[in-house]
């Protein structure tokens, strides 16, 4: 299954302690932070605290992140900030309008296209994977619906992949296909009966990407471009396919491995594909979020699915003890969080090696936040939470 397509030697590394500040930090520019504007309309949201927001992104680069970009917008006030460096070797301020890998924020785009196709009568939420994509899943698997893929209650597993950093580095230029991922899925048993629990996995959205292609007869990326990117004028949002580069101005991404920062700016994103390959900017993601929340992309009944959690479904935790169950946190395409102070926000986080992204807003869009962090570890950066709390719960 894991046939090597291309393998390159480890890129030149910046040798520093993973928990220490790079030497280039001595010359790093101070965080650039705007003043916070006042609300332009009545709001129950807390006033923006520009000083707290600026503190939340200061001190970069450090052992966990090399840069940050933050955009806060809405009637409840606006603020913009950036910090860190574009390159830990040479320093330099992060470019305004820098592009970055958005990871699983890609899932919101993919889910939106699927729901559009539902609205056009080309896909049924209660239709099954077995109906639309016969033979994709093992015959031993139970029926899995499109709705269950969208809200991560399918029970489908992930492939079993090596988890060590060196494997990632050795194979970061490999080219994957969706079928290769699904061949790995088929080797594992279902995690739970579909519809009974929720487990957030790339597998669900990879199947949705394959569904888009089956129904439209076009690459999923063409559908996203035609239905979202071009109509909304997202000029700096791209779907890289097999291109390992980030086009246009950007900060480099790094992965901390055994006390060394490895430049992983160039890396194939064919493994996450429809679940996590896209590139964008804070301005483009803000524009997308506004259009989506305001119903420009989906009819109201379908859009409601993106703001509604499945009822009575706990998160999958691998055990049968209900006493430690946590409630579902994912809708059909997004996630929901209620922050200290009672503010509920909707959106998505995403991460790829070197980059971590967050895109969140209140349902009425009076406050919305887009964050990009040059995280040196895979997974959502802790700074996303820090910035989010500063923006929504001041």
Topology:
Blueprint (H helix, E strand, L loop, with lengths): L12 E3 L16 E2 L16 H8 L7 E9 L5 E9 L3 E3 L6 E2 L4 H14 L9 H4 L13 H5 L14 H6 L7 H8 L16 H15 L3 H13 L21 E4 L2 E4 L15 E2 L1 H12 L6 H4 L31 E4 L5 E9 L2 E7 L6 E8 L6 H11 L2
Antiparallel strand pairs: 1-8, 2-4, 3-4, 3-13, 4-5, 6-9, 7-8, 10-11, 11-12, 12-13
Helix pairs in contact: 1-11, 2-7, 6-7
Descriptive account of the structure:
The protein is of the alpha+beta class. The chain has a single domain (13-392), classed as Beta-lactamase. It has eleven helices and 13 strands. Strands 2, 3, 4, 5, 10, 11, 12 and 13 form an eight-stranded antiparallel beta sheet that branches. A three-stranded antiparallel beta sheet has the order 1-8-7, with no helix packed on it. Strand 4 (79-87) and strand 5 (91-93) form a beta hairpin. Helix 1 (50-57) runs antiparallel to helix 11 (382-392), helix 2 (106-119) packs across helix 7 (202-216) and helix 6 packs across helix 7 (202-216). The longest helix is centred in the middle third of the chain and has 15 residues, at 202-216. Mean pLDDT is 92; it is low at 1-21. Residues 1-20 form the signal peptide. InterPro entries: AmpC-like, Beta-lactam-related, Beta-lactam/transpept-like.
Fraction of residues in helices? 25-40%
Tally of alpha and pi helices:
11
Low-confidence stretches: 1-21
Radius of gyration (CA) equals 21 Å
In CATH terms, the superfamily is DD-peptidase/beta-lactamase superfamily
- Mean pLDDT metric: 92
Could you spell the SSE succession in H and E letters? EEHEEEEHHHHHHHEEEHHEEEEH
**Strand runs, count:** 13
What is the oligomeric state here?
Answer: single chain
InterPro entries: AmpC-like, Beta-lactam-related, Beta-lactam/transpept-like
Protein name: D-alanyl-D-alanine carboxypeptidase
Keywords: Carboxypeptidase, Hydrolase, Protease, Signal
Signal peptide: 1-20
């Amino acid at each position: 299954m894991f046939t090597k397509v291309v393998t390159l030697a480890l890129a030149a590394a910046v040798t520093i302690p993973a928990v220490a500040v790079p030497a280039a930090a001595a010359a790093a520019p101070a965080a650039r932070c705007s003043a916070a504007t006042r609300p332009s309309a009545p709001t129950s949201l807390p006033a923006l605290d520009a000083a707290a927001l600026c503190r939340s992104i200061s001190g970069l680069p450090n052992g966990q992140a090399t840069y940050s970009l933050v955009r806060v917008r809405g009637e409840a006030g606006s603020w913009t900030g950036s910090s860190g460096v574009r390159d830990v070797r040479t320093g330099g301020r992060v470019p305004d309008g820098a592009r970055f890998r958005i990871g699983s924020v890609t899932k919101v785009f993919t889910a939106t296209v699927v729901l559009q196709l539902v609205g056009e009568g080309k896909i049924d939420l209660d239709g099954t994977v077995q109906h639309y994509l016969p033979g994709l899943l093992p015959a031993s698997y139970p029926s899995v619906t499109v709705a269950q893929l969208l809200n991560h209650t399918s029970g489908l597993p992930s492939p079993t992949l090596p988890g060590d950093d060196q494997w990632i580095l050795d194979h970061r230029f490999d080219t994957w296909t969706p079928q290769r991922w699904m061949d790995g899925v088929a080797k594992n048993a279902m995690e739970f009966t579909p519809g009974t629990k929720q487990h957030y996995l790339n597998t669900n959205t990879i199947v949705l990407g394959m569904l888009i292609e089956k129904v439209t007869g076009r690459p999923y990326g063409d559908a996203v471009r035609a239905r979202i990117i071009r109509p909304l004028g997202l000029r700096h949002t791209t779907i890289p396919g097999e291109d390992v580069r980030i086009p246009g101005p950007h900060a480099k991404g790094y992965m901390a491995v055994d006390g060394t920062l490895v430049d992983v700016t160039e890396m194939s994103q064919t493994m996450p594909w429809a679940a996590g390959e896209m590139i964008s900017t804070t301005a483009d993601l803000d524009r997308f979020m506004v259009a989506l929340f305001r119903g420009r992309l989906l009819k109201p009944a379908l859009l409601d699915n993106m703001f509604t959690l499945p009822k009575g479904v706990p998160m999958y935790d691998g055990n049968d003890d209900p006493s430690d169950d946590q409630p579902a946190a994912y809708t059909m395409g997004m996630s929901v969080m209620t922050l200290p102070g009672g503010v509920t926000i909707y959106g998505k986080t995403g991460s790829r090696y070197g980059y971590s992204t967050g895109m969140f807003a209140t349902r009425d869009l009076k406050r919305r936040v887009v964050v990009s962090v040059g995280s040196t570890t895979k997974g959502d950066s802790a700074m996303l939470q820090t910035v989010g709390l500063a923006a929504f719960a001041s």
